[in-house]
Amino acid sequence: MAAAPSPGTGTKERILDAAEALFGESGFAATSLRALTGQAGVNLAAVHYHFGSKEALLAAVLERRVAPVNRERVLRLDALEAHGREPGIEAILEAFLAPAITMDGKSGIRPILARLHSEPIELVRVILERQFGELGRRFVAALARALPGLSSAEVGERFELVVGAMLYMIGGSRETSVLGTPPSSDGETLERMVAFLAAGMRA
Amino acid sequence: MAAAPSPGTGTKERILDAAEALFGESGFAATSLRALTGQAGVNLAAVHYHFGSKEALLAAVLERRVAPVNRERVLRLDALEAHGREPGIEAILEAFLAPAITMDGKSGIRPILARLHSEPIELVRVILERQFGELGRRFVAALARALPGLSSAEVGERFELVVGAMLYMIGGSRETSVLGTPPSSDGETLERMVAFLAAGMRA
DNA sequence: AGTACAATGAAACGAACGTTTGAATCATCC
DNA sequence: GGATGATTCAAACGTTCGTTTCATTGTACT
Protein backbone atom coordinates (compact mmCIF):
# COMPACT_ATOMS: atom_id res chain seq x y z
CA MET A 1 0.00 0.00 0.00
CA ALA A 2 1.34 3.40 -0.93
CA ALA A 3 -0.62 5.16 1.81
CA ALA A 4 2.18 6.77 3.76
CA PRO A 5 1.23 7.63 7.32
CA SER A 6 0.86 11.36 7.79
CA PRO A 7 4.29 12.86 8.34
CA GLY A 8 5.28 14.47 11.61
CA THR A 9 3.64 11.78 13.71
CA GLY A 10 6.33 9.12 13.47
CA THR A 11 7.80 7.31 16.42
CA LYS A 12 10.83 9.55 16.67
CA GLU A 13 8.77 12.74 16.65
CA ARG A 14 6.37 11.41 19.22
CA ILE A 15 9.26 10.52 21.52
CA LEU A 16 10.86 13.93 21.04
CA ASP A 17 7.58 15.72 21.73
CA ALA A 18 6.91 13.74 24.89
CA ALA A 19 10.49 14.21 26.07
CA GLU A 20 10.32 17.95 25.52
CA ALA A 21 7.11 18.16 27.51
CA LEU A 22 8.12 15.90 30.39
CA PHE A 23 11.72 17.08 30.73
CA GLY A 24 10.34 20.59 30.86
CA GLU A 25 7.72 19.76 33.47
CA SER A 26 9.59 17.49 35.85
CA GLY A 27 13.24 17.70 34.87
CA PHE A 28 15.50 15.20 33.22
CA ALA A 29 16.38 13.04 36.21
CA ALA A 30 12.83 12.84 37.51
CA THR A 31 11.36 11.74 34.18
CA SER A 32 11.39 7.98 33.58
CA LEU A 33 11.53 6.48 30.13
CA ARG A 34 8.50 4.41 31.01
CA ALA A 35 6.41 7.48 31.71
CA LEU A 36 7.84 9.11 28.61
CA THR A 37 7.14 6.24 26.23
CA GLY A 38 3.75 5.78 27.83
CA GLN A 39 2.77 9.35 27.05
CA ALA A 40 4.22 9.07 23.55
CA GLY A 41 2.32 5.83 22.92
CA VAL A 42 5.41 3.95 21.82
CA ASN A 43 7.29 0.95 23.10
CA LEU A 44 9.87 1.42 25.83
CA ALA A 45 12.67 0.02 23.68
CA ALA A 46 11.99 2.53 20.93
CA VAL A 47 13.98 5.17 22.78
CA HIS A 48 17.16 3.12 22.63
CA TYR A 49 16.48 1.95 19.11
CA HIS A 50 16.08 5.47 17.73
CA PHE A 51 18.34 7.48 20.04
CA GLY A 52 20.64 5.08 21.88
CA SER A 53 20.18 6.28 25.45
CA LYS A 54 18.21 8.63 27.64
CA GLU A 55 21.03 11.15 27.61
CA ALA A 56 21.28 10.98 23.83
CA LEU A 57 17.54 11.64 23.74
CA LEU A 58 18.06 14.80 25.76
CA ALA A 59 20.76 15.84 23.30
CA ALA A 60 18.35 15.22 20.41
CA VAL A 61 15.62 17.22 22.14
CA LEU A 62 17.98 20.15 22.50
CA GLU A 63 19.37 19.80 19.02
CA ARG A 64 15.98 19.83 17.33
CA ARG A 65 15.27 23.30 18.72
CA VAL A 66 18.73 24.79 19.05
CA ALA A 67 20.23 23.80 15.72
CA PRO A 68 17.91 25.98 13.59
CA VAL A 69 18.67 28.94 15.84
CA ASN A 70 22.40 28.43 15.48
CA ARG A 71 22.09 28.00 11.73
CA GLU A 72 20.37 31.37 11.49
CA ARG A 73 23.09 32.91 13.65
CA VAL A 74 25.76 31.71 11.28
CA LEU A 75 23.89 33.12 8.29
CA ARG A 76 23.58 36.51 9.92
CA LEU A 77 27.19 36.66 11.00
CA ASP A 78 28.30 35.58 7.52
CA ALA A 79 26.21 38.37 6.02
CA LEU A 80 27.71 40.93 8.38
CA GLU A 81 31.26 39.91 7.66
CA ALA A 82 30.63 39.75 3.91
CA HIS A 83 30.18 43.51 3.89
CA GLY A 84 33.94 43.95 4.04
CA ARG A 85 33.64 46.60 6.73
CA GLU A 86 34.04 45.30 10.31
CA PRO A 87 30.59 45.03 11.88
CA GLY A 88 29.77 46.98 15.03
CA ILE A 89 29.01 45.52 18.42
CA GLU A 90 25.29 46.09 18.16
CA ALA A 91 25.11 44.33 14.83
CA ILE A 92 27.04 41.33 16.13
CA LEU A 93 24.92 41.05 19.24
CA GLU A 94 21.75 41.34 17.21
CA ALA A 95 22.94 38.57 14.90
CA PHE A 96 23.45 36.44 17.98
CA LEU A 97 20.30 37.31 19.92
CA ALA A 98 17.63 37.81 17.27
CA PRO A 99 17.37 34.17 16.16
CA ALA A 100 16.94 33.00 19.74
CA ILE A 101 14.35 35.65 20.57
CA THR A 102 12.27 35.30 17.45
CA MET A 103 12.62 31.66 16.43
CA ASP A 104 12.18 29.92 19.72
CA GLY A 105 8.58 30.85 20.10
CA LYS A 106 6.03 28.15 20.53
CA SER A 107 7.84 24.97 21.45
CA GLY A 108 8.24 23.56 24.94
CA ILE A 109 11.98 23.95 24.84
CA ARG A 110 12.21 27.06 26.96
CA PRO A 111 11.60 25.48 30.37
CA ILE A 112 14.24 22.92 29.46
CA LEU A 113 16.76 25.59 28.65
CA ALA A 114 15.86 27.39 31.84
CA ARG A 115 16.53 24.26 33.82
CA LEU A 116 19.60 23.09 32.00
CA HIS A 117 21.84 24.34 34.78
CA SER A 118 19.94 22.21 37.28
CA GLU A 119 20.57 18.96 35.47
CA PRO A 120 23.58 16.63 35.49
CA ILE A 121 26.21 19.20 34.88
CA GLU A 122 28.72 17.21 32.88
CA LEU A 123 26.25 15.92 30.33
CA VAL A 124 24.76 19.32 29.66
CA ARG A 125 28.18 20.90 29.40
CA VAL A 126 29.19 18.41 26.73
CA ILE A 127 25.99 18.89 24.76
CA LEU A 128 26.26 22.65 24.83
CA GLU A 129 29.91 22.57 23.84
CA ARG A 130 29.13 20.41 20.83
CA GLN A 131 26.18 22.47 19.66
CA PHE A 132 27.44 25.85 20.70
CA GLY A 133 31.21 25.81 21.08
CA GLU A 134 32.47 26.69 17.65
CA LEU A 135 29.67 29.16 17.03
CA GLY A 136 30.36 30.93 20.30
CA ARG A 137 34.04 31.23 19.51
CA ARG A 138 33.23 32.80 16.16
CA PHE A 139 31.10 35.45 17.84
CA VAL A 140 33.74 36.07 20.50
CA ALA A 141 36.32 36.57 17.75
CA ALA A 142 34.06 39.00 15.92
CA LEU A 143 33.41 40.94 19.12
CA ALA A 144 37.10 41.01 19.95
CA ARG A 145 37.80 42.59 16.57
CA ALA A 146 35.18 45.24 17.30
CA LEU A 147 36.67 45.85 20.74
CA PRO A 148 40.39 46.30 20.15
CA GLY A 149 40.94 47.66 23.65
CA LEU A 150 39.93 44.42 25.32
CA SER A 151 41.88 41.21 25.66
CA SER A 152 40.19 38.25 24.06
CA ALA A 153 39.84 36.64 27.51
CA GLU A 154 37.92 39.67 28.69
CA VAL A 155 35.69 39.54 25.66
CA GLY A 156 35.03 35.87 26.33
CA GLU A 157 34.09 36.57 29.93
CA ARG A 158 31.68 39.29 28.98
CA PHE A 159 30.19 37.20 26.24
CA GLU A 160 29.27 34.63 28.87
CA LEU A 161 27.19 37.33 30.49
CA VAL A 162 25.47 37.86 27.17
CA VAL A 163 24.70 34.16 26.99
CA GLY A 164 23.43 34.12 30.55
CA ALA A 165 21.15 37.09 29.96
CA MET A 166 19.82 35.55 26.79
CA LEU A 167 19.11 32.21 28.43
CA TYR A 168 17.24 33.91 31.20
CA MET A 169 15.26 35.99 28.80
CA ILE A 170 14.14 33.18 26.56
CA GLY A 171 13.90 30.50 29.23
CA GLY A 172 13.26 32.33 32.46
CA SER A 173 10.11 32.49 34.52
CA ARG A 174 8.28 34.33 31.80
CA GLU A 175 4.87 32.71 32.09
CA THR A 176 4.06 35.33 34.68
CA SER A 177 5.06 38.06 32.24
CA VAL A 178 8.12 39.23 34.26
CA LEU A 179 9.48 42.17 36.09
CA GLY A 180 9.18 45.41 34.28
CA THR A 181 7.02 46.60 31.52
CA PRO A 182 4.25 44.37 30.24
CA PRO A 183 5.43 41.31 28.29
CA SER A 184 6.54 43.43 25.35
CA SER A 185 7.02 42.21 21.83
CA ASP A 186 9.98 40.23 20.64
CA GLY A 187 11.26 43.21 18.71
CA GLU A 188 11.19 45.47 21.74
CA THR A 189 12.83 42.86 23.90
CA LEU A 190 15.59 42.38 21.37
CA GLU A 191 16.17 46.10 20.97
CA ARG A 192 16.54 46.66 24.69
CA MET A 193 18.75 43.66 25.20
CA VAL A 194 21.08 44.70 22.42
CA ALA A 195 21.45 48.22 23.76
CA PHE A 196 21.92 46.97 27.28
CA LEU A 197 24.46 44.30 26.47
CA ALA A 198 26.38 46.42 23.99
CA ALA A 199 26.95 48.98 26.70
CA GLY A 200 28.11 46.18 28.97
CA MET A 201 30.52 44.92 26.38
CA ARG A 202 32.01 48.38 25.95
CA ALA A 203 32.33 49.15 29.66
CA MET B 1 34.09 11.53 79.90
CA ALA B 2 32.44 14.92 79.83
CA ALA B 3 34.14 15.93 76.60
CA ALA B 4 31.15 16.87 74.49
CA PRO B 5 31.85 16.90 70.75
CA SER B 6 32.01 20.43 69.42
CA PRO B 7 28.48 21.66 68.77
CA GLY B 8 27.27 22.36 65.26
CA THR B 9 28.83 19.21 63.89
CA GLY B 10 26.12 16.74 64.93
CA THR B 11 24.64 14.18 62.60
CA LYS B 12 21.60 16.26 61.74
CA GLU B 13 23.65 19.32 60.86
CA ARG B 14 26.08 17.34 58.75
CA ILE B 15 23.17 15.81 56.83
CA LEU B 16 21.56 19.20 56.30
CA ASP B 17 24.83 20.73 55.12
CA ALA B 18 25.52 17.93 52.67
CA ALA B 19 21.93 18.02 51.39
CA GLU B 20 22.08 21.77 50.87
CA ALA B 21 25.30 21.41 48.89
CA LEU B 22 24.29 18.41 46.78
CA PHE B 23 20.69 19.43 46.12
CA GLY B 24 22.06 22.77 44.99
CA GLU B 25 24.68 21.23 42.73
CA SER B 26 22.82 18.37 41.10
CA GLY B 27 19.19 18.85 41.98
CA PHE B 28 16.90 16.90 44.27
CA ALA B 29 16.04 13.95 42.05
CA ALA B 30 19.59 13.40 40.84
CA THR B 31 21.05 13.32 44.35
CA SER B 32 21.01 9.88 46.00
CA LEU B 33 20.89 9.43 49.73
CA ARG B 34 23.92 7.19 49.47
CA ALA B 35 26.01 9.95 47.91
CA LEU B 36 24.58 12.41 50.41
CA THR B 37 25.29 10.37 53.52
CA GLY B 38 28.69 9.47 52.12
CA GLN B 39 29.65 13.12 51.82
CA ALA B 40 28.21 13.84 55.26
CA GLY B 41 30.12 10.95 56.81
CA VAL B 42 27.04 9.44 58.41
CA ASN B 43 25.16 6.19 58.03
CA LEU B 44 22.57 5.82 55.29
CA ALA B 45 19.77 5.13 57.74
CA ALA B 46 20.47 8.33 59.68
CA VAL B 47 18.46 10.32 57.15
CA HIS B 48 15.30 8.40 57.88
CA TYR B 49 15.98 8.28 61.60
CA HIS B 50 16.36 12.06 61.88
CA PHE B 51 14.09 13.31 59.11
CA GLY B 52 11.79 10.47 58.04
CA SER B 53 12.24 10.59 54.28
CA LYS B 54 14.21 12.21 51.50
CA GLU B 55 11.39 14.63 50.82
CA ALA B 56 11.15 15.56 54.48
CA LEU B 57 14.89 16.22 54.37
CA LEU B 58 14.35 18.67 51.53
CA ALA B 59 11.65 20.36 53.58
CA ALA B 60 14.07 20.61 56.52
CA VAL B 61 16.80 22.04 54.29
CA LEU B 62 14.41 24.72 53.09
CA GLU B 63 13.01 25.38 56.53
CA ARG B 64 16.41 25.93 58.13
CA ARG B 65 17.09 28.85 55.82
CA VAL B 66 13.61 30.15 55.05
CA ALA B 67 12.09 30.15 58.54
CA PRO B 68 14.37 32.89 59.97
CA VAL B 69 13.62 35.04 56.94
CA ASN B 70 9.89 34.63 57.41
CA ARG B 71 10.17 35.31 61.14
CA GLU B 72 11.87 38.62 60.41
CA ARG B 73 9.16 39.45 57.87
CA VAL B 74 6.47 38.95 60.48
CA LEU B 75 8.32 41.16 62.95
CA ARG B 76 8.63 43.95 60.41
CA LEU B 77 5.02 43.77 59.31
CA ASP B 78 3.88 43.72 62.94
CA ALA B 79 5.94 46.83 63.61
CA LEU B 80 4.46 48.59 60.59
CA GLU B 81 0.89 47.81 61.55
CA ALA B 82 1.48 48.74 65.19
CA HIS B 83 1.92 52.36 64.15
CA GLY B 84 -1.83 52.72 63.87
CA ARG B 85 -1.52 54.46 60.52
CA GLU B 86 -1.87 52.22 57.46
CA PRO B 87 1.61 51.53 56.06
CA GLY B 88 2.45 52.48 52.48
CA ILE B 89 3.24 50.12 49.65
CA GLU B 90 6.97 50.76 49.76
CA ALA B 91 7.13 50.03 53.46
CA ILE B 92 5.21 46.77 53.06
CA LEU B 93 7.37 45.62 50.17
CA GLU B 94 10.52 46.50 52.06
CA ALA B 95 9.32 44.51 55.06
CA PHE B 96 8.84 41.59 52.72
CA LEU B 97 11.99 41.88 50.63
CA ALA B 98 14.64 43.14 53.03
CA PRO B 99 14.90 39.98 55.15
CA ALA B 100 15.38 37.83 52.06
CA ILE B 101 17.96 40.14 50.52
CA THR B 102 20.02 40.70 53.64
CA MET B 103 19.68 37.49 55.64
CA ASP B 104 20.16 34.89 52.99
CA GLY B 105 23.77 35.68 52.36
CA LYS B 106 26.33 32.98 52.78
CA SER B 107 24.56 29.66 52.78
CA GLY B 108 24.18 27.32 49.84
CA ILE B 109 20.43 27.70 49.83
CA ARG B 110 20.21 30.09 46.92
CA PRO B 111 20.83 27.59 44.10
CA ILE B 112 18.19 25.39 45.69
CA LEU B 113 15.64 28.17 45.70
CA ALA B 114 16.57 28.99 42.13
CA ARG B 115 15.89 25.41 41.14
CA LEU B 116 12.79 24.83 43.18
CA HIS B 117 10.60 25.17 40.14
CA SER B 118 12.54 22.38 38.42
CA GLU B 119 11.89 19.82 41.10
CA PRO B 120 8.90 17.56 41.71
CA ILE B 121 6.25 20.17 41.49
CA GLU B 122 3.72 18.83 43.96
CA LEU B 123 6.18 18.35 46.79
CA VAL B 124 7.64 21.82 46.45
CA ARG B 125 4.20 23.37 46.27
CA VAL B 126 3.21 21.75 49.56
CA ILE B 127 6.41 22.83 51.28
CA LEU B 128 6.09 26.40 50.11
CA GLU B 129 2.44 26.57 51.11
CA ARG B 130 3.24 25.41 54.63
CA GLN B 131 6.18 27.73 55.13
CA PHE B 132 4.91 30.64 53.15
CA GLY B 133 1.14 30.48 52.75
CA GLU B 134 -0.16 32.31 55.79
CA LEU B 135 2.62 34.87 55.68
CA GLY B 136 1.96 35.59 52.02
CA ARG B 137 -1.73 36.10 52.66
CA ARG B 138 -0.95 38.58 55.45
CA PHE B 139 1.17 40.63 53.07
CA VAL B 140 -1.45 40.45 50.36
CA ALA B 141 -4.04 41.70 52.82
CA ALA B 142 -1.80 44.58 53.89
CA LEU B 143 -1.14 45.51 50.27
CA ALA B 144 -4.82 45.31 49.44
CA ARG B 145 -5.55 47.80 52.22
CA ALA B 146 -2.94 50.13 50.77
CA LEU B 147 -4.41 49.73 47.27
CA PRO B 148 -8.13 50.32 47.71
CA GLY B 149 -8.67 50.64 43.96
CA LEU B 150 -7.62 47.05 43.29
CA SER B 151 -9.56 43.87 43.88
CA SER B 152 -7.89 41.51 46.27
CA ALA B 153 -7.53 38.99 43.46
CA GLU B 154 -5.60 41.54 41.44
CA VAL B 155 -3.38 42.31 44.40
CA GLY B 156 -2.70 38.61 44.83
CA GLU B 157 -1.75 38.24 41.18
CA ARG B 158 0.65 41.13 41.32
CA PHE B 159 2.14 39.92 44.55
CA GLU B 160 3.10 36.72 42.76
CA LEU B 161 5.18 38.85 40.45
CA VAL B 162 6.88 40.31 43.49
CA VAL B 163 7.66 36.83 44.74
CA GLY B 164 8.95 35.76 41.34
CA ALA B 165 11.22 38.78 41.05
CA MET B 166 12.55 38.23 44.55
CA LEU B 167 13.28 34.56 43.95
CA TYR B 168 15.14 35.39 40.80
CA MET B 169 17.13 38.08 42.52
CA ILE B 170 18.26 36.03 45.48
CA GLY B 171 18.50 32.71 43.70
CA GLY B 172 19.22 33.49 40.08
CA SER B 173 22.37 32.96 38.10
CA ARG B 174 24.21 35.54 40.12
CA GLU B 175 27.61 33.87 40.41
CA THR B 176 28.57 35.55 37.19
CA SER B 177 27.63 38.92 38.64
CA VAL B 178 24.68 39.47 36.26
CA LEU B 179 23.31 41.81 33.76
CA GLY B 180 23.56 45.42 34.56
CA THR B 181 25.65 47.35 36.98
CA PRO B 182 28.36 45.54 38.92
CA PRO B 183 27.03 43.23 41.65
CA SER B 184 25.88 46.17 43.79
CA SER B 185 25.31 46.05 47.50
CA ASP B 186 22.31 44.49 49.19
CA GLY B 187 21.04 47.91 50.16
CA GLU B 188 21.13 49.20 46.61
CA THR B 189 19.49 46.07 45.27
CA LEU B 190 16.72 46.34 47.82
CA GLU B 191 16.14 50.01 47.14
CA ARG B 192 15.81 49.49 43.40
CA MET B 193 13.59 46.45 43.75
CA VAL B 194 11.22 48.24 46.11
CA ALA B 195 10.87 51.24 43.80
CA PHE B 196 10.41 49.02 40.79
CA LEU B 197 7.88 46.68 42.32
CA ALA B 198 5.93 49.42 44.08
CA ALA B 199 5.37 51.07 40.73
CA GLY B 200 4.22 47.75 39.35
CA MET B 201 1.78 47.27 42.18
CA ARG B 202 0.31 50.71 41.60
CA ALA B 203 0.01 50.39 37.83
C1' DA C 1 6.70 -15.39 -3.94
C1' DG C 2 10.70 -14.63 -1.37
C1' DT C 3 14.55 -12.51 0.63
C1' DA C 4 16.63 -8.48 3.40
C1' DC C 5 16.27 -5.03 6.44
C1' DA C 6 13.93 -1.56 9.40
C1' DA C 7 10.97 -1.18 13.16
C1' DT C 8 8.11 -2.78 17.03
C1' DG C 9 6.84 -5.68 20.84
C1' DA C 10 7.04 -8.28 25.33
C1' DA C 11 10.06 -9.70 28.65
C1' DA C 12 13.95 -9.76 31.27
C1' DC C 13 18.71 -7.96 32.87
C1' DG C 14 21.67 -6.08 36.63
C1' DA C 15 22.15 -1.91 39.13
C1' DA C 16 20.69 1.64 42.01
C1' DC C 17 17.13 3.71 44.39
C1' DG C 18 14.39 5.02 48.96
C1' DT C 19 13.19 2.70 52.80
C1' DT C 20 12.97 -0.71 56.69
C1' DT C 21 14.76 -3.80 60.06
C1' DG C 22 17.02 -5.45 64.13
C1' DA C 23 21.06 -5.77 66.51
C1' DA C 24 25.03 -3.07 68.43
C1' DT C 25 26.65 1.00 70.67
C1' DC C 26 26.37 5.13 73.36
C1' DA C 27 24.70 8.23 76.82
C1' DT C 28 21.95 9.01 81.03
C1' DC C 29 19.79 8.43 85.38
C1' DC C 30 18.56 5.26 89.67
C1' DG D 1 26.69 -0.74 87.85
C1' DG D 2 22.59 -2.20 85.72
C1' DA D 3 18.45 -0.66 83.29
C1' DT D 4 16.43 2.70 79.82
C1' DG D 5 16.13 5.28 75.86
C1' DA D 6 18.54 7.60 72.01
C1' DT D 7 21.52 6.91 68.27
C1' DT D 8 24.41 4.36 64.92
C1' DC D 9 25.42 0.50 62.07
C1' DA D 10 25.41 -3.28 58.50
C1' DA D 11 22.33 -5.65 55.91
C1' DA D 12 18.45 -6.48 53.48
C1' DC D 13 13.68 -5.22 51.67
C1' DG D 14 10.83 -4.51 47.45
C1' DT D 15 10.58 -1.26 43.67
C1' DT D 16 11.93 1.19 39.78
C1' DC D 17 15.32 2.60 36.83
C1' DG D 18 18.00 2.52 32.11
C1' DT D 19 19.25 -0.82 29.22
C1' DT D 20 19.43 -5.23 26.54
C1' DT D 21 17.71 -9.24 24.26
C1' DC D 22 15.33 -11.69 20.92
C1' DA D 23 11.29 -12.90 18.64
C1' DT D 24 7.79 -10.75 15.71
C1' DT D 25 5.88 -7.59 12.57
C1' DG D 26 5.99 -4.42 8.72
C1' DT D 27 8.06 -2.68 4.33
C1' DA D 28 10.61 -2.67 0.08
C1' DC D 29 13.08 -4.62 -3.61
C1' DT D 30 13.92 -8.67 -7.70
Short précis:
The structure is a homodimer of 203-residue chains. With 203 residues, chain A is mainly α.
Can you walk me through this structure?
The structure is a homodimer of 203-residue chains. Chain A has 203 residues and is an all-alpha fold. Chain A is 70% helix and 0% strand. In chain A, helix 5 (89-103) runs antiparallel to helix 7 (121-146) and helix 5 (89-103) runs antiparallel to helix 9 (186-202). The longest helix of chain A is centred in the middle third of the chain and has 29 residues, at 54-82. Chain A starts with 10 loop residues before the first helix and ends with a helix. Mean pLDDT of chain A is 82; it is low at 1-7 and 172-182. Chain A binds chain B through residues 25-30, 115, 117-121, 160-161, 164-165, 167-168, 172-173, 176-180, 196, 200, and chain B through 25-27, 29-30, 115, 117-121, 160-161, 164-165, 167-168, 172-173, 176-180, 196, 200. Chain A binds a DNA duplex (30 and 30 nucleotides) through residues 1, 11, 32-34, 42-50, 53-54.
Write the layout of secondary structure elements.
2 copies of one chain form a homodimer.
Chain A: H1 11-26, H2 33-40, H3 46-50, H4 54-82, H5 89-103, H6 109-115, H7 121-146, H8 152-171, H9 186-202
Helix pairs in contact in A: 1-2, 1-4, 1-6, 4-5, 4-7, 5-7, 5-9, 6-8, 7-8, 8-9
The structure holds a DNA duplex (30 and 30 nucleotides).
By DSSP (H or I, 4+ residues per run), the number of helices of chain A equals 9
Alpha carbon gyration radius of chain A: 19 Å
Please write the string of helix (H) and strand (E) elements of chain A.
HHHHHHHHH
Largest sheet of chain A: none
Structural class computed from helices and strand pairing of chain A:
mainly alpha
Strand content of chain A: under 5%
Total count of strands of chain A: 0
Helix content of chain A: over 70%
Mean pLDDT of chain A, to the nearest integer, reads 82
- Roughly how many Å apart are the termini of chain A? 66 Å
Largest interface: A-B, 27 and 26 residues
Rough shape of chain A?
A: elongated
| Contiguous uncertain segments of 5+ residues of chain A | 1-7, 172-182
Give the quaternary arrangement of the chains.
Answer: homodimer
